[in-house]
Amino acid sequence: NLGRKRLGVALVGLGYYSRDLLAPALQMTKHCYLAGIVTGSPEKIPQWQKNYRIADYNVYNYDNMHQLANNPDIDVVYVVTPTGTHKKFTEIAANAGKHVWCEKPMAMNEQECQDMIDVCKKNKVQLTIGYRMQHEPNTQRIMQFAKQKPYGDIKTIIAEAGYNGTGASYSWRADPALGGGAMYDMGVYPLNAARYTAGEEPIAVTATMNSTTEVYKNVDETTRFELEFTSGARAVCATSYAQSMNQLRAECAKGWYELKPFQSYSGVKGSTSDGIILPAAPENQQARQMDNDALAIINNSRVLVPGEEGMKDIVIVEAIFKAAKEAKRIVL
Ligand code: NDP
């Protein structure tokens, strides 16, 4: 019974998100703690060991991480590497008998997602995708509105997430093979939001993509896409590495509601047409997410964001690329 202790988490990939967000959040969690690291950069190890008192025997690299199988300190492996590597590290972790938390977007295509789901099922470990918004209280209110329809039928959803990264230097985010480009990296926020705001799955998609700067010449720098739902609702979405945007809005038969910003690390807040204010929640988002996910393991209960949810977005992402390439409406 794992309930006797806090779960030990090993972070795989000590880049920006692990260093600046997840490791600090793991100092605030109640049901899990930072127990180990997996890194391809030996020079990062001393600082991490010092900051978080990580024992030598809980430090791994990409070649020996399968040996996690023999380490009872580690219950969960959190994959925080470029998207194109998520499947590979998920398979190693699951085959080592560890539960897997994997960052969004889940993987590059439907087949990779299915393989990740299958390997976790085979090893009887949980798989959860790091969609932190689905753990955020105001976002959960929006998900409730989708069920209860307090403002009548949802007509139009506007979902946009982007930032100006045109001054950034070259990284995997500019490499299509590793999951670079705005659509995979940022676009899954408006896509996931459109789905949870509608409370139904899209039936067709149209899209346009473009790139204007040298650094993002091989990937989509800005993508605009529209989703059609069975109910007749429509989602008008955008994502970009060249332009800052951060809003989610539902226009309904009898009013509207919105979150602005809707996907920031803190300060997600909203309002409605009848004057309800959804104030920003004070809790650390990542701590809340990891505690929820740790409890699902401890209680052996259903995870909030399973692999199947991550895969639904990736199927649509693939259709968005096809729609943009062929300049036509793709039926899902
Ligand atoms: P970074 O580039 O900052 O870090 C990625 C790390 O992955 C690297 O530092 C490296 O760690 C490791 N890595 C392993 N293989 C490779 C490779 N082939 N090329 C480059 N790095 C590699 O990226 P981020 O931390 O910003 O993003 C990582 C993941 O987290 C992505 O999937 C991204 O979408 C997601 N993310 C999620 C966010 C959220 O809000 N949920 C926010 C930001 C990112 P090492 O040197 O230790 O080996």
How is this structure best described in words?
By secondary structure, the chain is an alpha/beta fold. The protein folds into two domains: 2-131 and 287-301, Rossmann fold (3-Layer(aba) Sandwich); 137-280 and 314-331, Dihydrodipicolinate Reductase, domain 2, CATH 3.30.360.10. It has helices spanning 16-26, 45-52, 86-95, 110-122, 137-148, 182-198, 285-298, 307-326, and strands at residues 7-12, 32-38, 59-60, 76-79, 99-102, 127-129, 154-164, 202-210, 222-229, 234-240, 242-252, 255-259, 270-272, 277-278, 330-331. The strands form two sheets. Strands 14-13-12-11-7-10-9-8-15 form a nine-stranded mixed β-sheet. The longest helix has 20 residues, at 307-326. The protein is globular and about 60 Å long. The termini are far apart. NADPH dihydro-nicotinamide-adenine-dinucleotide phosphate binds at residues 13-18, 39-41, 44, 80-83, 85, 103-104, 130, 132, 171-172, 178, 185.
Molecular shape = globular
Q: What order do the SSEs take from the amino end to the carboxyl end, as H and E?
A: EHEHEEHEHEHEHEEEEEEEHHE
CATH superfamily of the largest domain: Dihydrodipicolinate Reductase, domain 2
**If you compute it from the alpha carbons, what radius of gyration comes out, rounded to the nearest whole angstrom?**
20 Å
The major β-sheet equals: 9 strands, mixed
Q: What proportion of the residues form beta strands (DSSP E)? A: 25-35%
Can you tag this structure with a few keywords?
Dihydrodipicolinate Reductase, domain 2; 332 residues; nine-stranded mixed beta sheet; binds NADPH dihydro-nicotinamide-adenine-dinucleotide phosphate; single chain; 2 domains; alpha/beta; 8 helices; Rossmann fold
